[in-house]
Structures are given as C-alpha cells and as structure tokens.
C-alpha cells in the first residue's frame, strides 16, 4: 500500500511538472507568435574618412592613423508605421566630382545618392516615413533630415534644447539649419518605445552629445539587435572603452557605455556599430532587408 502511495505521489509530481513545462512552452509560443514582424532596411548615407584618428581617443593611441567609416541610415517598417533612423551626410555632396575635405583636414566625406532615390529602391517615398529619429545631431547623422519636414521628429528633449539653443544657432549654423525644417516634434525624456510593443525602442545613452541615443530592435528571425549610434565608432573603441575628444561629456559617455553593454547582454542583442564598414556589410543592403 505504501509503495502504491509513493508511486502515485511521484506520478502526480511528474504530471504537475510536465503541465507547468507545457504551459510555459505554450506561453512562449504565444509570445513569439505575437511578436510583430518588422523589416530593417540599411542604406549608405555616404563615406567618412577620419584623417586624424587621434580625435577618437583621449590619449595618443591613434596618432598618425586614419580610418574609413561607413555612414549608414536605416528604415524600420513596423505594422503600425515606419521609422527612419539617422540621416547620413549632407545631400549637397551628391554629384560633387571629388570628395570634400573639411578646412581643418580632419575629415574627407562623400555621398553618392539622395534619400529620395534610395527610398525609391524599396518602393517608398519621403511621405511614407511616419517618424524620423536621429541618434544625435552631428553633421554626419543629420544630412537629409530636413527632407522629412512632414514626419514626426522623435528627439530627446536635452538634444533638442542643445541643437536649437541660441549658442548653437550662432556657432554651428550648418548644424541648426540641417534640422530647422523639422517642426513636427515629439520631445522625449529617457527610453522610448516607438510602437508600444517593445520591438522598436530608443535607449537614452547620453555623453557623445547631451541627448545621444541608440536603437534596440527585436526581430522575429534575426533576434534582438542594437544600432549603436556613435556610442562607439569602431571595434577597438568598444573593446577598450575609448572616448573621442569631441564628446560632450566623458564621464557620462563611460556611464552610458556600461549601460549599453549591460543591456545588450541582458537582451542577447547583436550589436552593429553604425560607422563600422564591416558591420554595415554584414547587413542586407536595400532593397533587401533583415527581418
């Protein structure tokens, strides 16, 4: 009789565990099925040659070196709308016979095509972009921003105040003029879930600029990924946590680097450095897309 009772208890416990396991698996399956299918299109917003790579570290590590950077921008298509992330180099570069070098010699830049032509490759027009968000407002991320005056600009309030300040309008008129047509503005403070379902989330990671942010995507097939903005420009700076000399706040940058890495690890997200040629080439190029 005792053996029978023990057997019944064991069978009952196993059945309970099995039921819990099946319930958990069923819940996971439902969650996966409910995950929205989004598409990520990667475009070239030009090429940047950093002629003075020493600008990208607080020490002399890169003195005398140079490096060619990609300058990507992206379109994310979600069932609830379409987001453009970053805006490449100025379109005034398109059609120039030679790349342009800045007066201080620090950067040589070029851009081959306009955003309108590039969107046409995926059967879209400027009017199809519901939202535009910039990782930050440096010259190589805002090039065609004004083209999207009809879109809603999702911007950290600290970045908005920084780029539209009287001081910036006076000392960096080209930067201000590159975003001044964006009058449909939604100011945000901190992380922002663009479509409300966790699949497209802007993460507030200040330091490079006051309102610098990165983008987290939860893809159905690819899985989680992060677009780095200018958290890091190339692999070595990520490995050694090196900070460019032109960052707004070094200590804040270091703090954001720690938060970036912790979040990427928590989510199991693959990181794509937006200025890395190698990372840009890993992504399908429009009209192909990642899903």
Description:
Helix content is 30%, strand content 23%. With 291 residues, it is an alpha/beta fold. 34% of the residues are buried.
Low-confidence segments, given as residue ranges, are 1-11, 26-32
Number-wise, the strands total 13
Strand order, largest beta sheet: 4-5-1-2-3-6-7-8
How many DSSP helices? 8
CATH architecture: 4-Layer Sandwich
| Amount of helix | 25-40%
Largest sheet entry: 8 strands, mixed
Radius of gyration: 23 Å
Termini separation comes to: 59 Å
Q: Report the β-strand fraction as a percent range.
A: 15-25%
Can you say what the CATH homologous superfamily is? Ribonuclease Z/Hydroxyacylglutathione hydrolase-like
Q: What structural category characterises the helix and strand content?
A: alpha/beta
Q: What's the structural domain tally? A: 1
In short, what is this structure?
This protein is an alpha/beta fold. It contains 8 helices and 13 strands. It has a single domain, classed as Metallo-beta-lactamase, Chain A (4-Layer Sandwich).
Ordered list of secondary-structure elements with their pairings:
Elements: H1 2-34, E1 39-50, E2 67-78, E3 81-85, E4 100-101, E5 107-110, H2 115-120, E6 131-133, E7 152-156, H3 157-163, H4 166-171, H5 173-177, E8 185-188, E9 192-193, E10 200-204, E11 213-218, E12 224-227, H6 235-240, H7 250-267, E13 270-272, H8 277-282
Parallel strand pairs: 3-6, 6-7, 7-8, 12-13
Antiparallel strand pairs: 1-2, 1-5, 2-3, 4-5, 9-10, 10-11, 11-12
Please supply descriptive tags for the structure shown above:
alpha/beta, 13 strands, 291 residues, five-stranded mixed sheet, eight-stranded mixed sheet, 23% strand, Metallo-beta-lactamase, Chain A, 8 helices
């Amino acid at each position: 009789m005792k053996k029978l009772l023990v057997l019944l208890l064991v069978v009952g416990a196993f059945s309970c565990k099995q039921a819990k396991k099946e319930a958990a698996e069923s819940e996971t399956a439902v969650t996966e099925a409910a995950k929205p299918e989004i598409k990520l299109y990667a475009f070239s917003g030009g090429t940047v040659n950093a002629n003075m790579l020493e600008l990208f570290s607080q020490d002399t590590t890169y003195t005398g070196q140079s490096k060619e950077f990609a300058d990507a921008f992206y379109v994310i298509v979600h069932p609830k709308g379409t987001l453009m992330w970053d805006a490449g180099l100025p379109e005034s570069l398109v059609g120039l016979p030679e790349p342009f070098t800045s007066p201080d010699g620090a950067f040589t830049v070029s851009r081959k095509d306009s955003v309108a032509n590039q969107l046409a490759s995926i059967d879209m027009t400027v009017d199809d972009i519901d939202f535009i968000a910039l990782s930050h407002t440096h010259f190589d991320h805002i090039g065609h921003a004004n083209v999207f005056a009809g879109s809603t600009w999702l911007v950290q309030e600290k970045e908005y105040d920084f780029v539209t300040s009287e001081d910036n309008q006076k000392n960096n008129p080209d930067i201000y003029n590159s975003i001044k047509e964006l009058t449909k503005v939604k100011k945000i403070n901190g992380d922002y879930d663009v479509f409300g379902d966790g699949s497209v989330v802007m993460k507030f990671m200040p330091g490079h600029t006051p309102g610098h942010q990165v983008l987290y995507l939860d893809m159905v097939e690819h899985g989680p990924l992060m677009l780095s903005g200018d958290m890091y420009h190339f692999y070595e700076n990520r490995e050694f946590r090196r900070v460019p000399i032109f960052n707004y706040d070094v200590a804040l940058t270091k703090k954001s680097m720690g938060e970036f890495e912790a979040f990427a690890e928590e989510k199991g997200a693959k990181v794509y450095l937006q200025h890395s040629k190698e990372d840009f080439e890993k992504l399908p190029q429009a009209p192909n897309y990642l899903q």
